[in-house]
Amino acid sequence: MQKTKDLLNFWEEQMKHSHTSSNYFFRKSPSHYHMMLLVMSAYKHKEKLSVEELKTKLFKTSRPKSALIINEACEKNFFLLEKTSIDQRKKNIKPTESFVKEFEEYIETLKGLVL
């Protein structure tokens, strides 16, 4: 019973911040959520992920739509782009420090809510 109450409190708190939070942004569509998982997976595995690679990995999303989602995530300060030292035209995408912290807190909260 307490776990259910904790879960409800958690979601109520999330809803208070829904329109400004990454939680809301990355749940807009399956493509948004998939993008977050791809970027965080690359980050956790210490792999480079270029914008072009990300665009091709997003399922059922056109390249122009992928570009819009990526740009919006960067504008909201969830991700940032880094030019590579070898080819200045190629940009790698990675999460910002603040998003990494928010993501890790979210994951830890979810782990504690398992019913």
Summarize it.
With 115 residues, the chain is mainly alpha-helical. It has helices spanning 2-16, 22-25, 30-44, 51-57, 63-75, 97-112, and strands at 79-83, 91-95.
Would you write up a description of this structure?
It is a single chain. The protein is mainly alpha-helical and 115 residues long. The chain starts with a helix and ends with a helix. The chain is elongated and about 55 Å long. α4 crosses α5. The model has no long low-confidence stretch (mean pLDDT 85). A hairpin with a 7-residue loop joins β1 (79-83) and β2. The protein has helices at 2-16, 22-25, 30-44, 51-57, 63-75, 97-112, and strands at 79-83, 91-95.
Largest sheet report: 2 strands, antiparallel
Q: Per the principal axes of the C-alpha atoms, what is the gross shape?
A: elongated
Helix content: 55-70%
Cα gyration radius (Å)? 16 Å
- Distance between the first and last residues' Cα: 9 Å
Q: pLDDT under 50 segments (min length 5)?
A: none
Query: How many beta-strand elements?
Result: 2
- Give the spatial strand order of the biggest sheet: 1-2
Topology as a string of helices (H) and strands (E): HHHHHEEH
Q: Which band does the percent of strand residues land in?
A: 5-15%
Mean pLDDT: 85
* Helix/strand structural class: mainly alpha
Number of helical stretches of at least 4 residues: 6
